[in-house]
Structure formats: C-alpha cells, structure tokens
Amino acid sequence: MKPIQVGLLGLGTVGSGTIEVLRRNREEISRRAGRDIVIKAASARDLTKERKVSLEGIEIVPTAGHIVARPDIDIVVELIGGDTAARELVLRAIDNGKHVVTANKALLALHGTEIFAHAHAKGVMVAFEAAVAGGIPIIKAIREGLTANRIEWIAGIINGTCNYILSEMRDKGLPFDMVLAEAQRLGYAEADPATDIEGVDTAHKLTILAAIAFGIPMQFDKVYVEGITKLTAIDLKYAEGLGYRIKLIGLTRRTGKGIELRVHPTLVPARRLIANVEGVMNAVLVNGDAVGPTLFYGRGAGAEATASAVVADLVDVTRMATSDPEHRVPHLAFQPDRLSDAPILAMEDIETAYYLRLRALDRPGVLADVTRICADLSISIDAIFQKEAGEGEDQVDVVILTHRTVERNINAAIRRIEGLSTIPAPVVRVRLEELL
Ligand code: NAP
Ligand code: HSE
Q1: Tens digit of pLDDT for each residue in 76-120?
Q2: Which atom of ligand 2 sits closest to the CA of residue 130?
Q3: Which of 50, 67, 252, 275 could tie 245 with a disulfide, CB 3.0–4.6 Å?
Q4: Is 205 considered catalytic here?
C-alpha cells in the first residue's frame, strides 16, 4: 500500500521527538498501521536554526501554509502551539480535506467547537491524544475504554512543569525560579511558562477532559483557575506535617447542581497514589460509575513522551483514513448532536474542604474569635493547630483544616477573619480533596 504522507508544522521539542520516534520505530509502526507513515515535508519559523534531529529525507518548505495546501499531504501534524497561526492553519488543512493531528490543547480548549464542526462537515479526523497528559493515552481511555460508564469525576495532575516545580521545591528545597528554569531547559514548559505556572495549561487540558467525559462543549472561559505562584515552602511543609501533599489538580465533577470545573493547588492525603506522583510525571484519576476509580500514570511532557501520543494518533488516523466518517469514534466521545447543556457551577457554589493558615497575634481569645466566625457560617473544623511563637515573636501561625463546606461560606469567613485586629496578614487558603 502507498505510504501515508505527513506534513509536519513545527520542528521544536515535540516536532523533533516525533521525527525521532517515527524514524526509530518505523518498521514496527508500519506493521501496526498497515502501511508506512512518512514525513514528507516540514516547516518551522526560522529555517536556519539548527535542529535536534536530522531532517534527512524531509523536504523543508518555506512556510507552514505550503504544507496545508499540498495535494500530496494526507495528514497535517500541528506542533506549532498558540491559537492564532495554528487555528488558521488547522482550519485550512481541514478545508483542504486533510486529517489533522495536534498536541495543541490551547487551540482545542479555545477553538475546539469550531474546529470539530469543520472537521465533521468535511469528513476528516482531528486527533489530539498528545494534548492532554503528554504520553498517557487518556483521551483514548476515556473516549473508548470507559465508554460504558457514566463518568462521575476526574482529577488530574496534568501539568508536568508545575508538578516538577512542586516536587523539587518539596524534596530538595530548591527555589521556584531555579526549578522553573530547569523545566524550560528540559523542554517541559510552554513557550510562555506563565501559562504553566498560572494554571492556564492545566485549565486547557481540563476543558478537553470535561468535554469528552460529560459530553459538554468546550468551555474554557468557565474554568476557575489558580496556579502555583503564590504557594510558599511553609505551606508545603505544614501540609506534609498534617499528612498531605500539595499538588496542582485539575478537577471536574458532575453534581446535582451542575459541573465543577476547577484548577487550583490542592492538599491530597499523602497515602493516595496520586499524591506520590512526582517530577514531570502526570496522573489522571477517572471515576466511572461501573468501573470505580481508575488511575492513569506516565510522563506528562517532553519530546519523546509527547511524540509517543502524536505517533499513536498518526497510526489511528492511518488505520481509519479509508473508513466511513459516520463510523468513526466521535471527536468528543459523544455524537455532536447529542451534547449536554449541563451548567458549569460558579466557584462560590462548589463544595470542598479547606486548609487555612492565619498569622495571628499571640493573645488570649484570638482562636475563640476565629472558631466563632467559622461556627456562625456553619463551617465545621476538622483539625486546628498553632505553632509556638519563635523567640521574641508575638505572632504565630495557626492552621485550620475544615470539613467540606460551600466555597461561598469560606470566602465570607476569610473576609471576617481578615477583619479581626488580631490577624495582621491575609489568610492563606488551599483547597483539600480526599479523592476517594
Ligand atoms: P516549541 O519547542 O516551541 O516548538 C514550536 C515549533 O513551532 C518551533 O519549531 C517553531 O519554529 C515552530 N513555529 C512557530 N510558529 C510557527 C509558524 N507560524 N509557522 C511554522 N512553524 C512555526 O514547542 P513544543 O514544546 O514542541 O510544543 C508544540 C505544541 O505541543 C504546543 O501546542 C504545546 O503546547 C504542545 N505540547 C508540548 C509538550 C512538551 O512537552 N513540550 C507536551 C504536550 C503538548 P522555530 O523552531 O523556527 O522557532
Ligand atoms: N507545558 C506542558 C506541561 C507540556 O508542563 O505539562 C505538556 O502538555
């Protein structure tokens, strides 16, 4: 059979990894796909730049636009990133009847609805396994392997950069900026690393996971997003002392009132498997009504781990290229005309438990004032401890763990606690999930 011809947009971390993996495992991949998969042409922004892989046998063309227009290209692989040029190129590729493989979660979270509608109308596939959790085949698992289930919730460590930073800060006591620079050097971070550390990349991925889990449209604008930049070493340490680890978790949950869609640092009991996922590794916990909890673990970023997912999509698309479009797995797992309009819950309406750290004057009655505020707002305290004051200090740290309560009540409690004359600094709040 004639080889399938691929046009590659982007020769950076993932583009180079894709060339390398396809080349190294060419024979095995061909035996699986039923025909050779060949990178026919590629493009990048700066064609004079030295590349991490040999480009021998690949035609390098001046612009990405050439590739999406070429009649000899069957599949366009978009590994540029961002949502401007990438959107335009992907839509043009689809309009030209090409299948698309992309690792671009920002593009799909923001423009997925438009892109999938175009692809559906044109009868082409858009495959995106690499867009969520790097090398973990989580899209295939949810869309196909768990298709019998009503998914109840998903909680994931789905940003390698953040998990790497939190692990290195906790284990080695290294400063935030130093670890971030190393994550950039290793090719884990986004072009603008603020996207990682502010939680936006996790929110892009969570948007995609929620869409395929619940059959809802992509709704990135409704995700509550809080990154890791405000976390301090002292909170990582206190959490550890209480038997928890702090992780950046993307969480989506079906409730009677709507769907929770939130990204924030989270205390997770240290005895949970997911709490022990360290470094660039990712993990996604999916709870289905029939199967119960399932945990998917693997490398969440980096050249070859991500290429593993890109190449898997290439094989899938190659196998299905000649099939009737109506018989393919729907892009978002559910038939496009059967999507649900379940509302996304406002953050004030979600329910979870909380870690609160207060800086308090070391005076009689301070704790009584704080606990009275909690009681007035029906917030039940699970644990409370006060660090002894240091030599010559008149302020102490007080840490409170609450039972599950509505976020609106915690917000009100924090406002009132911060209004006490005995609380001289803002209250630190980190959410806590048992993930059972
Ligand atoms: P990268 O290293 O920055 O590479 C981006 C590539 O795109 C570069 O080769 C760049 O060219 C090229 N490019 C940029 N604008 C272009 C344009 N207008 N036309 C043609 N080429 C253009 O990025 P990456 O880390 O490989 O990430 C690529 C995509 O994969 C992103 O969507 C990212 O979110 C996603 N992703 C990355 C990882 C990871 O671990 N890195 C994991 C999963 C998903 P120059 O080299 O000439 O500048
Ligand atoms: N910057 C992303 C991360 C790349 O660190 O997880 C993988 O999507």
Answers
A1: 999 999 999 999 999 999 999 999 999 999 999 999 999 999 999
A2: 8
A3: 275
A4: yes
CATH number attached to the domain at 349-432: 3.30.70.260
- Integer distance in angstroms from the first to the last C-alpha of the chain? 50
Per-residue pLDDT of 320-337, as tens digits, reads 998 999 899 999 999 999
- The percent of residues in the chain predicted with pLDDT above 90, rounded, is 97
Q: Exactly one of 205, 247, 257, 387 is catalytic; which is it?
A: 205
Within 6 A (CB) of ligand 1 lie: 9-15, 43-46, 49, 64, 79-81, 85, 103-104, 130, 134, 187-188, 190-191, 301-302, 306
Alpha helices in 302-358 (DSSP H): 303-320
302: CA distance to ligand 1 center in Å? 12
> Which CATH architecture describes the domain 4-135+303-338?
3-Layer(aba) Sandwich (3.40)
Is the pTM above the cut of 0.90? yes
**Which of 190, 198, 228, 263 is the best mutation target for the ligand 2 pocket, counting ligand atoms within 8 Å of the beta carbon and taking the most?**
190
Residue 106 Cα to ligand 1 middle (Å): 12
Does the structure show a pLDDT above 90 at 387?
A: no
User: Would you kindly state where each structural domain of the chain is located, as residue ranges?
Assistant: 4-135+303-338, 138-299, 349-432
Residue 408 Cα distances to 2, 378, 401, 415, angstroms: 61, 11, 16, 11
Closest CA to 20 of 53, 43, 49, 47: 53
Selected from 3.40.50.300, 3.40.50.2000, 3.40.250.10, 3.30.360.10, the CATH number assigned to the domain covering 138-299 reads 3.30.360.10
